[in-house]
Amino acid sequence: MEALAALGVAAAAVQFFDFAFKAIDDIIEACQPIIRRLGRIFGELHVIRTKGIDYDPELLIEQPDKEKDRSKIKEIVYLPLQAMREIWRKPEIESLLENLNQLQSQLTLRILYHLSRVTSESNQEQRTHFDGLTQNYSDIIEVLTVSEQKLASVEKQSQYLKLAMDQSECRAMARDEKIIAALLTLRNGDTRLVKADDSFSGEYDKTTPKSIMTLKESRRSDTAEAHIGDFSQVFDKVLSCLFFRQIMDREETLSEAHQNTYDWIFCDPEAEEKPWSPFIQWLERGTGCYWISGKAGSGKSTLMKYVYHDRRTRAALRKWAGNQANLTSASFFFWNLGTNLQKSQDGLLRSILYDTLVQRPYLMSAIMPELLRTAANMPDSHILSEPNHAELLRWFRKLLHHSSPSSRFFFMIDGLDEFDGDHQEIINLIISSARNPNVKFLVSSRPIPACVDAFSMCPTLQLHDLTHDDIQKYVEDLLQDSFKKRHTLEMPQLVEEVVEKACGVFLWVVLVARSLLTGLRNYDNVQELRERLDELPSDLKDLYAHMLQQVPQQYRRGASELFQTVILATNVQTSEFRLSPLQLHFAFQDRELLLQTPIQQISHEEMTRRTDEIDGRLRSRSMGLLEVRLLSRAKTNRFAPGPVKIHSIEFIHKTAVEFLQTKEVWDEIIGDTQGSSFDAAGSLFRSCVYMCKIRSTDDVLQLEDSFVWAMMDRAVEYATIAENSEHPITSNEIEDLDKVMTHHWKSATKCLCSTNLRFPTDGHWTNGYSFVPTSPLTGKLSEANKPLSLDSLLVYHGLSTAMNGRAQHGTKDYSSSLLRDAVEYLFQKPQSRSAQDTLHIQWHRAKVCSVLLNWGADPNAGPSPKPWKRMLEYATTVLENKTQFHRDFLSKDFAYLYSNLLISFITHSADVNATVLWTGTKSFSTEFNRSSALSIIDELFSSTTVGAAVHNPFDDAPLYTAPTEISQFHKYITRLLIERGAVKEDNTAKPSHVDVLDATRNNSQAEILPAKGKDPRKRLSRLRRLGSSIRSSLKLS
After folding, report:
1. What pTM does this model have?
2. What is the pLDDT of residues 424-439, one digit of tens each?
3. What is the CA radius of gyration of the chain?
C-alpha cells in the first residue's frame, strides 16, 4: 500500500470516527435540555400528580434506575422517559465512545507504522514522491495531511470504508478522499513532504471542501491521536500571519494611467521606431529580469500598475506558463514614505508569499511546514506571531525551489530605489532568484548605480525617452475644453512647447498644466501663457522651489503648519485610516476648545462646510503640492469586506516630500513656525480625539476595523511623539481621550476581534488590548499586568508629562504593579524606531519610573522579576562591555539615564542588599553565583583595562581609566548604598535551579499569542479517556 493511499484510508476512517463522536455529542446535547425541561414540569406537577410525595426533578437524569422513587407518577408521563432511559443508558454510551476511540487510536498507530516502513523501504519510484528523503527513517511520530472531497455522511463513509478493506491498494478510496500533501514529522525533529504529482500545479478549486488531518503518537507508546479539522481555518491563520494592513497602500494611492497612454509597451518597438527591449516578447518567451528605468516623476509606478493589471500581460504570461492554471503572479510596490514593512525586504517577502499562497494554498505544506504544523495544532482562538526575516527568506527560497515547468512564477517589484537598506542586498536576491528558468521578475527603479550595474544587460526600457506622445495626449485632453473657447490655432504649438520642456517627466507636466489652467481661468492671452510657461523651471526640484516661493507671505506660516502636519500623518496614519480633510480641519482648532467640545455627532452640512474650508486652504497655501484624493481600499484586513472609498490628504508625488525634507528646505519650513505654540504631533493628537467625539457609537466594536479604536491608537502615538516637544500632551487632554473612549466602550454591548473572540465591554476600555496583540502601534501592551487601565497605556508609551500631572491614585500595590511594567518596557527596544526616537522613548519611560516611585511604588514588591532586581540584572548584562557603557554615559545616552534611575530606586527604599545571579567578570564562565547590589554597581562604574576579560600579553592597548565624571558618580552611588546599609560580600552559595532559569529567561515574543476562549484540545483529552477495541471490523491486522 503506497503512502498516500494509506493516508486516504486514514482520512476517511478518522472522518467517520469524528462524525460519530460529534453525532453522539449532538444527540446527547439536544436531549439534555428536553429531559431537564421535563424534569421541571414534573417538579411543578408533583404536588398534584403525586399527592405530596417528595420528588427531585434531577432524579430522572441522574438516578434513572430507582423506579420506586417515581412509582406514583402517572403512566402517561412515565412511559416516554422509560423509552429514553432504555435507549440512552450512560454505560452504553461510554462503551460506544470507548470502542470508537480505541479503534481510532489503533488505526492511527498502524498508519504511522506503515508509513515508517514505506519510507524505509522506498524504491526509486517512491523516492520521487518524497522531498529530500536521502536516508533511512523508520520512526514517524506525526503526520499532517491536506485533502480534498471530504466524505459527507456516515453512510457514504461506511460504504467506502468497506470498499477500502476489499482493495489492497485502496484506489477507490483515493478517488473520493484525495490527499494533496502529507507532512511527516520524524522522531529526530526533521520533516519530510509527501505529495501527489500534481499537488502544486493546476487551478485551486475553492468550491471543494478541504480538510486537514493530524495523526500523532501520544505520550503512551501504545496509543495515538487523530484529529480532523477545517483547512480553511488553518489557511486563514497562515495568511493573517503574513498579511499587514499597508500591503496594498502604495498601489492604491497611485493614479490610474491616463486614457490611451502606455499602450505602446505592448507593441513591436521596431514598428513604433522606439528604442526599447520588446516587452511582450519577454513576457511570452523571455527569462530573468526586465528592468523599467526612468527619471523621478516619469511615471514608472503608474506604468507598472497599468502593466500588471492589463489583460494583455496575463495573456502573454499564459503562453509562457502553458496555461493560466500553471501561473502564479505576485506584486509589491516599495514606498520610502510608508511604514517599515512598505520599504523593507521583510515587507516584500511577506507580500509575495501572501499573494502566492492566496492562489496556491497547498504550497504552504512545502514551503512552511513548521508554520503549518503550528497553525493546525493550536486552538482556534490563538493566532500566529509575525514571522522573522530568517523565516521569510527560507520560505521564499523554498517557494522558488518548488517551481517547475508546470508551476511558474511571475513577480513584479516597483521602486527598488525606495528600498530602505543596502540596495545591493535586495538586487542580489532578485538576480539569484531570476536564474531559475521558471521564475521571472519585472522590476522598476530610478537609474541608481546599483541598479544600472545589475540590470543594464537585461531587457530594459528608459521610460522618460518613450512618453513624448503620452504627455502630448495628456496635455491636449486636459487643456482642450479651455482652448476651444479661445486660442484654438495656438494650442498645438503651446502643447508642443510643454512636451519638449518636460523631458519625459510626467509629474512636471501635471504641475505645469495646472498652472496653465489657472492662466486660462484668468483669461491670459497666448503671450501671457507662454511667459507663465517660461517662468517654470524644467527641473522638478527647481519647480518645487518656484512653487514654494509663490506662497504669499501672510500664508507662509499656514503652509508650514500644513506641510509639517501632513508629513507626520503620512508616517503614522496608514491604510483606511489615513489623514482625512475633516481630521486635518480639526488639527488646527484651538487647544482649549477640544476640552470644551461635547461628545456628539455633527450634521452632514457642518461636515461638508468644514471639509470645503480645509480644501480651500490647501489650494491657497500648498500651491498644488497637497491635494485631496478619493482612494479605493481593497480590504482593511484579511477578514474585512471591500472595497472602501475614503478621502485622503496626499502629496502630489513622493518627490515633493523628498524636496521638502531636504535640510535647507525643511529648516526654512520649521523656521516659519518657530516661536509659536504650534506642534504637529499635538495638533494631530487633538484631531484624533475630535474625530472620536463626533463619531456615532457602535453596538459591536470590531477592534481591528473600528474607526474609533484606530483614532485612539494613533492619538496615543502622536502623544508619544509630542512628549519630545515644548508642548507635550497634558493630563487633562489624556483624561479627555479617556472620557471619549469610555463613552464608546460602554455604549457597545460586545467586542470582536479577528481571532473570532467575543468579549464583553465591562472593565476599562484598555482591556481591548488584551485581545488585540497585533496592534501596529501599541506592540506588547497586551502582556502588561492585568487589569489594564489608562495608566497602563501611559506607562507603556512613556507619557511622563501626563502621568506627572495626574494625582496620585490607587493603592501601593497598584503603583508597584505599574512599576514592574515600566521597568520591563525600559529595556525593550520600541518597534520600527530610529536610534534617536528610541532614546527619547527610553528617556520618558525612565521618567515614568520616577513618577511611580514618587507615587509610593515599592521597588522590591511583586513576583519575579521584581523592579529593583531587574535593574541589577541589566547591570550584569552590560558588564561584559563596560567601556562602551562608560562611553554611553558620557554621551548622555541610555547608560546615563539608567545610572540616574539607579539613584532614584536607591533613594526610594530599594533593597540595597538584594542579590542577583551573575557569572562574574571571568570570561567564558558558565557558573552562576549570587552577587550583591553593591558588588555589581561597584564593578560597573569602576576603572578597568581594555580587554581585561580575556588578557592578551601581546596587546599593547593602554589602560582605560574612567573619566572624572564617572569616577565622581561611582563614589556617590557606592557611598549612597553603604549609607543605607549595603554590604559588598557575595553569597557564593549555589543558586537553585529555579534561580538559574529565572536568570537565563528569554523575553522574546512567543511564536503563538494566546487569546481567551474555550480550548478545542479538550476534545482530544476526552478522546484519550476512551478505550476498547473493535479493530476486527476493519481487518487492519
Report:
1. 0.70
2. 999 999 999 999 999 9
3. 35
